[in-house]
Structure formats: structure tokens, C-alpha cells
Amino acid sequence: MQKITIDQQHAPSLLPDGHSWQLAWNDEFDGTELDRAKWFPRLHIMQQRFRTFCEDAFFLDGESNLHLTTYEKDGHFYSTQLQTGENFLDRPGNPYSSALSWPIAQFSEPKFLHKYGYYEVRCKLQKQPGWWSAFWMQSPIIGANMDTATTGVELDIMENFTRDGLVSHNLHWGGYGKDHKHVGSGNIPTLGSLDDFHYYGMDWSPNGYVFYIDGKESWRSDIPVSHCEQFIILSTECQGYRRGDKPAPELTKDAEKDAFVIDFVRVFDRS
């Protein structure tokens, strides 16, 4: 891997050897306010308003870090997901039908869509049990038909469901119903202290995907390859609400002191 410095104020990127790279998009999370020209919150799952997704469980610390956090209110825990675009599952569907449908609500203009290149996050994982974090991508029309080349693939660059530094890389395609398919790396340990920042990245090319942890290849796959533009998501989620209406027993008020801390998100193209 090669170290690429974008300026003197921020940590370098770790990029695959054998290519020249050009910065295409980034957020260094400078200042104390989120750049709303780059991100907006996700509030829906499967066209339904998700109870515990909120717009305010985060802050910028003034030292170039974004903190995604949780908070408890009236016995429920809330967290934030931030994204640079949206798909039809993020919008309210037909209010007169329980079936998924093309949304009634108007789509928002995407902040950033891209295909191919290197996608990188430098972050500290959360430590408390009961909630998880992820750095991933979706397309605006994922699952609209079975041609994944044109409708896209869910690209889970980093998912952390535990508190011990185990992460996974996953691909999902064919929508989220009976035709859904999935392949993944299984759990991979993040070496070193969880008090430190770590790098998670994905090199996406027309031939497939190569995933990296701290500059070392951790998994690769070429099934299936998306050839459409997709958007980036930084997400956290409190466990217990996908199939129930109360937080997971592991989720306690200690989680309010915890955070998924992001130093930067960067996208590079081969130049």
C-alpha cells in the first residue's frame, strides 16, 4: 500500500499499489457543523419510518472527527445514519398498500454518487454492546430488477456488530425479498487497540472488489459486480428494533458514552 497525503493537517490515506490515484470526493469533518451539502440522514427502512433512526445523534468535535452516538429517551435508544444519496426504500411508499411500491414522496437530489475507485474510512469502532456501525454503499434503484450490473449491489465495506473489533465485508443483491442473495467474508479481527483509529477500504473496479483493513487485503470477490453509480452511508443502529419494539438487553445507558468516531471519508479514482 502507498501513503497518500492530501494536506498537512489530516492523516494520510492508504491506497493500493500499482496505480496512481486522484482524490474524487472527501469529508474531513472539520469544524463543528456537519456539511449538509454532503450528507443527509436516513430515516426509513423498507419505505417505513424506522422508530429509532434520528437526525441528532452525532456531533463534530472541532478536531476533524465526526462522532455517531446513541441516546436514550423514554426507554428507547436512538442513533443516526448519514448518507450521500437515497433509494426508493428510503421514501414513503403507497399509504394504501403494505406492499413495496415506487415511492409517493419526491426523491431528494443526491449529494454524491460514484462508481469504481477506492472508498476509504478512517475510524474508531464503538466499544459497547447492543449497537453496531457500518461504512457501506447502495444504489438509488437497488433491487428494481434482477440485473445487478445496472441496479447495483449493497457494498458493505465495513460492518461491526460486536464490541471486540470483529468486522466483516458483505455483498447483497437481488433486492431484499425472496430473490435476495448474499456473500460475505465472515468475521475478521481488527488488529491493534480499539482506542486507535483504523482504516477500512474497498477497491471497486469493473472486475470486482478488493477489501482492505489497515492497508492489508482482507477479502475479495467478483460476484456480482455493480456497474452503476452508488452512494455512501455511515450508519449506526441500536439492536432490538428490527423484529421487536424494545432495545436489546445488552443496550444500556453506558452506550450513551460510546461513539463510532470517523476521522475522514475519502473516494479516489485511478488517474
Automatic annotation (TrEMBL):
Residues 6-271 form the GH16 domain. SUPFAM superfamilies: Concanavalin A-like lectins/glucanases (SSF49899). Transmembrane segments: none annotated. One of its GO terms (biological process) is carbohydrate metabolic process. Pfam families: Glyco_hydro_16. One of its GO terms (molecular function) is hydrolase activity, hydrolyzing O-glycosyl compounds. Belongs to the glycosyl hydrolase 16 family. PANTHER family: GLYCOSIDE HYDROLASE FAMILY 16 PROTEIN, GLYCOSYL HYDROLASE-RELATED. This is Beta-glucanase (GH16 family). The lineage of its organism: Bacteria, Pseudomonadati, Lentisphaerota, Oligosphaeria, Oligosphaerales.
